[in-house]
Amino acid sequence: MPSADFADIPGTVLFDAQQARKGYWLNQFCMSLMKAANRTRFKADEAAYLAEWPMSDEQRQAVLDRDMNRCLALGGNIYFLVKIAATDGISVQQMVGRMTGMNEADYRDLMLRGGRPIEGNRYRHEWSSHKGPGG
Amino acid sequence: MAQVSATVYTSHVPAIGAALDHGRAAEPYWAPVFAGYEASRAWLRENPPDVVVLVFNDHATAFGPDLVPTFAIGTGESYAPADEGWGARPVPVVQGHPELAAHIAQSVIQDDFDLTLVNRMDVDHGLTVPLSLLFGQPPAEDFRWPCPVIPLAVNVVQYPVPSGRRCLALGRAIRKAIESYGDHLNVQVWGTGGMSHQLQGPRAGLINPVFDHAFMDMLTTVPEAAAVIPHVDYVREAGSEGIELVMWLVARGAMPERADGRAPTCVHRFYHVPASNTAVGHLVLTP
Q1: Chain B partners within 8 Å of A93 (Cβ)
Q2: N or C: more exposed end of chain A, with fewer CB within 10 A?
Q3: Average pLDDT, stretch B117-121?
Q4: Which domain holds residue B68?
């Protein structure tokens, strides 16, 4: 398992075989949104569409809530989850920004200023000392 | 005999494709990105390849939870632009080069690289954005890419992903394959993805220009040093999606060695932050 080496990187989920197994149906649901007809059906009744997939209730709720950090924890991967953003008609930047807890304008400004700096964001212990990501 | 005449490296950010497709390339946000490729586009018009071997990663488009090939080569006739959820990009169908692809597969597999062969695959922004950046948007009256493209997909989505060392060695095997092809062809190998970016979780937005510049330096002059960077360093220093940079090593491995042992010529180098969530890096190297 590669995960142990990566565990001290803050705010990051490594998509390995274990996460992929956990997220198998969540990610399959996301892939179904590459068909326009499925996007239409999902948008018409999200809960009904999600009920067609053998996902956990927790995974379904995380999708309904658009809680992407929760989706990641439950085995989702960004390249699958971004198809939900596409279906919602939001940009990758809007979706990614929401995972940081920042509002859209602040996240966009952060990127325009050169992005989140590496200093203070390499190790988990750096976050616990100043309560979260350095921006 | 076919030859690798140049290797090209570029990020493949989907928002760059969206900016082009929606006519926003001249906006102040995007203009510097496209300006950074101007010289390379001109260079490519004067040095047009007969075939491009394009190293990219599929982003949960053709390969999903069901199938995760570590290395896959497209041996098909053509590849349609994929609908990734926003509808397919309005760019031409990518024409393959099945004869050269089959020859590369034959040679590389006999060299102990277990490539997956793909005959049907829709291609996502990972493959089409580099084509747009470097060839520009094809005119409506001649709506096709200027040359055939052989897709070479590398898994950098689900761990375990291949090591940098393996990617560099694969590139060398691909060069050997190209140089043993019977027909005279001018081939370019493109490595795409990166540079630093993280698209997930509370650390999203991470950019590390120091790492990115050091990587471009190392890739150009001492690729063996770049090849031993461990995965955890990419993820920590360049963000979770910065791992895509291992794909640049495939292209670098395909670069012919100079007789005098010196580093290849850097025809063009460009770096810009941001494109959406990502640092854009670009190199053109010739032997």
Answers
A1: 15, 276-277
A2: N
A3: 98
A4: 3-286
